[in-house]
Specification:
Strand content of chain B: 25-35%
Strand order of the largest sheet of chain A: 9-8-21-20-19-10-18-17-11-16-12-13
Distance between the termini of chain B: 36 Å
Radius of gyration of chain A: 28 Å
Largest sheet of chain A: 12 strands, mixed
Radius of gyration of chain B: 18 Å
Number of strands of chain B: 7
Strand order of the largest sheet of chain B: 1-2-5-4-3-7
Mean pLDDT of chain A: 85
Number of domains of chain A: 3
Structural class of chain B: alpha+beta
Number of helices of chain A: 23
Oligomer: heterodimer
CATH topology of the largest domain in chain A: Rossmann fold
Helix content of chain A: 25-40%
CATH class of the largest domain in chain A: Alpha Beta
Shape of chain A: elongated
Number of strands of chain A: 21
Order of helices and strands of chain B: EEEEHHEEEHHHHH
Mean pLDDT of chain B: 93
Strand content of chain A: 15-25%
Number of helices of chain B: 7
CATH superfamily of the largest domain in chain A: P-loop containing nucleotide triphosphate hydrolases
């Protein structure tokens, strides 16, 4: 297939990328930083990302004294000769040129590796041609929707053809969806989650604190979109903390989640130190309480009167002021509507079992959507689920039976910096999962607008990153923590539009690429929904009326 | 066959000088001419210089005009001037033709002394200038005149001979821009001179 020539390689290095002299007449304005391009070497064809554009002149006098009074003819001749442009492209993958010439070979094979695509190990010689990528080049690298586990995630910025995520690989490691407010993080997440549910590559546990995933929400275009419960019906179980919520039309809940004080552990409380205003001594004090009362420590603490506090302090050597302060602050937990004196583990078992059986669980917070509710419940549930997966994995390691192999589980967590900031990432369940749970088949999908608030050790463990535009330098640095070719990607990230453009880097794509994610709309729903959509459009309309009158 | 315009009176591998058959009218600066080189071989060259001087280098020209007789009248009153003066032009060889084969290399042999120089017809100009490797030869030759003026003259002349072929002119200008890119003043001199839109 013929490709449009853009220029020739004139300089470069393996580390810094190839410098390409653009052909006369090729305007820099037709090229976009971050776009996918091809360099045709003699032995290999290189798949590259455009990382920089530079303007040059052959004679310094043109800079010191720009000529005046150009006619179009003179300026046409000068541009591309004495004044010219250079492009810097970073080769990411390569493929033997003989295979590239053969379209059928280019499209064969399930994975890029099988098609002959390999990571780049060399660079082409001078005067290799830089050409525009064709549809076949995109398919070669990014696969086709007909391959197993490949899910159409979006389109490249300049073409109308599918870019796929390998969802199997996506779930193998933790992943992140980043972007400043308004970049469409939650819609991007919905597209990915719907893909995972559709392709059935694993189970997901979603903490839906902003009420977006279970029942949908209003989009920025003022349209109501469907939630995952609407699309996938019984495959998705919704547990809500908000009893009142479960009675509303069009929002079926499968259970009401309540938490017993006996289930709250020291780590859950310490996680909320900031929200509860706990001091540094709180951890030690809780430790003493746990020594004495085991899992009933919270109940006992809250039931203590001044006399029994004094007695406890005398017995355990605790500081009376600390205990009193702790008691005062933890009353906040007791006031939560969903917190009970004591609960058995049945409900958590039910959730875990559903996940093990291939269902997906959304924890819906409803009106209990303060940061404290979110942190308490998600950490507690995650801790429980993680423990189950760890046991399953250990059993599987002993038995080595395929049936015992734990199903991949991905936990979706919003506002991730609350759980994964450098101060507490080492203590929370989420931190543990991000760092090591891959071997237990549990991964995280973190969604955040301030990735710089997340512990760098956690960030470096992320397999796939999907990022919309970020303005803050520190956030950009954070997203690219532990990624090679950062300078090229930094430009690609900075050049994204605010809306509907993301950069995908990592495990689920063979090389970084800028993508327009799919619209989360009726067409998409029709494609992913398994059964006829369980909640009809008019139900949504009715709900809207209920909510807003009109 | 086109018009004979001169006879070679000096010749070497990199330039030749011909005497014009018409006094004071050498071929246009920058024009493409060809010299007979025996049989069906021809040497193509670009006119890089023209001059009219005294035939006897020891006797320079002197004033002949009078208040009532000047310019053309000088020649009417002094018919002997036709024999005392001669017009010469310098040609830079840039290619050759052997039968139907045209090459844009400097010919291996200089054209023979006293052989004829011919003008080129527009068709021949078109054919020869289709490829423009010869521009490099011209730009790097040792010229009796500044290179930018010779190049500008040639491009303008060829553009007209090709019937106002703007695409050709732009391509040729781009090639010249490549050749002169280290010296932008010269380049701009060429571009301003050949600009058809100016």
């Amino acid at each position: 297939m013929d490709r449009k020539r853009l220029g020739v390689v004139v300089d470069g290095s393996f580390t810094a990328g190839l410098t390409v002299r653009l052909d006369p007449g090729q305007s820099t304005e037709d090229l976009q930083i971050g776009s996918f391009m091809v360099v045709q070497g003699r032995e290999y064809t290189y798949f590259c990302m455009l990382s920089d554009l530079q303007l040059r002149t052959s004679d310094a006098r043109l800079i010191a004294k720009p000529p005046q009074g150009f006619t179009p003819f003179v300026s046409r001749v000068l541009s591309g000769s004495a004044t010219y442009a250079m492009a810097v492209v970073k080769p990411m993958l390569m493929m033997p040129t003989v295979d590239v010439r053969d379209d059928s070979r280019q499209l064969a094979g399930q994975t890029p590796e099988e098609r002959g695509v390999m990571s780049v190990r060399t660079i082409p010689m001078h005067y290799a041609e830089l050409v525009e990528a064709t549809e076949i080049d995109f398919r070669t690298v990014f696969g086709s929707p007909d391959k197993p586990n490949h899910f159409v995630f979006g389109q490249p910025l300049t073409m109308n053809l599918p870019i796929c995520l390998d969802l199997g690989r996506f779930m193998e490691r933790s992943s992140g969806i980043f972007g400043q407010t308004g970049t469409g993080k939650s819609f991007t997440a919905l597209v990915v989650l719907a893909g995972i549910l559709r392709k059935n590559v694993g189970s997901t546990l979603i903490f839906d604190v902003h009420d977006e995933y279970a029942y949908g929400k209003e989009s920025e275009q003022k349209k109501w979109v469907k939630g995952l419960k609407h699309l996938f019906g019984s495959k998705v179980l919704v547990y809500t903390l908000d009893k009142a919520q479960s009675n509303r039309a069009g929002r079926p809940a499968d259970g009401i989640l309540e938490i017993g004080m006996n289930q709250i552990e020291r780590a859950d409380v310490i996680l909320m130190a900031q929200e509860l205003g706990l001091t540094a001594t709180a951890s030690a004090t809780i430790g003493l309480l746990e020594d004495r009362f085991n899992e009933r420590w919270l109940t006992e603490l809250l039931a203590m009167d001044p006399e029994s506090i004094k007695a406890f302090c005398a017995e355990k050597g605790a500081h009376q002021g600390s205990v009193e302060a702790l008691q005062r602050k933890l009353r906040e937990l007791q006031r939560r509507e969903y917190v009970r004196e004591s609960m058995n583990a049945n409900l958590l078992d039910e959730i875990t079992l559903a996940l093990e059986n291939g269902k997906h669980v959304i924890l819906h917070f409803g009106k209990h959507n303060s940061m404290m509710d979110y942190m308490l419940v998600s950490n507690l549930v995650t801790r429980y689920v993680r423990e189950r997966w760890r046991k399953r994995t250990e059993k599987y390691e002993v038995s080595k039976q395929a049936a015992d192999r734990p199903r991949p589980l991905m936990i979706t967590v919003e506002e991730a910096h609350k759980f994964l900031n450098p101060e507490i990432a080492s203590q929370t369940t989420f931190g543990t999962i991000a760092r090591e749970m891959r071997k237990f088949h549990v991964t995280l999908m973190v969604i955040d607008q301030r990735p710089s608030g997340i512990d760098s050790e956690v960030l470096s463990q992320l397999g796939t990153r999907i990022s919309g535009k970020l303005a803050d330098e520190r956030d950009i640095d954070a997203v690219l923590t532990g990624v090679s070719d950062r300078s090229a990607l930094r430009n690609a990230l900075a050049s994204l539009k605010l809306r509907q453009e993301v950069l995908v880097v990592g495990h689920a794509v063979p090389m970084p690429i800028q993508v327009r994610p799919r619209n989360y709309d009726a067409e998409f729903w029709a494609e992913v929904a398994e059964s006829p959509v369980s909640v009809a459009e008019d139900d949504l309309e009715r709900e809207k009326r209920e909510l807003f009158g009109a | 066959m086109t018009e004979r315009i001169g006879e070679i009176i000096e010749t070497d591998s990199f330039m030749f000088v011909a005497e014009s058959f018409t006094l004071n009218r050498p071929p246009a600066l920058g024009s493409l001419v060809k010299a007979q080189a025996g049989g069906d071989t021809w040497v193509y060259g670009v006119v890089a210089f023209g001059e009219t001087v005294s035939v006897d280098p020891g006797r320079g020209a002197v004033r002949r005009s009078r208040p009532d007789a000047y310019d053309e009248a000088v020649y009417t009153r002094h018919p002997e001037l036709e024999h005392l003066l001669h017009t010469k032009f310098t040609v830079i060889p840039v290619g050759s033709r052997a039968g139907a084969r045209v090459s844009q290399r400097i010919p291996s042999q200089p054209p023979p002394m006293h052989y004829s120089v011919y003008a080129c017809a527009p068709d021949e100009v078109r054919e020869f200038s289709e490829r423009r490797l010869y521009l490099r030869t011209l730009a790097t030759a040792e010229l009796p005149a500044p290179v930018e003026h010779v190049l500008a003259a040639h491009l303008t002349w060829a553009y007209e001979q090709r019937g106002g072929d703007e695409a050709w002119l732009e391509q040729a200008a781009l090639e010249v821009a490549g050749l002169l890119q280290q010296d932008v003043e010269r380049l701009l001199a060429v571009l301003y001179a050949v600009d058809p839109e100016a």
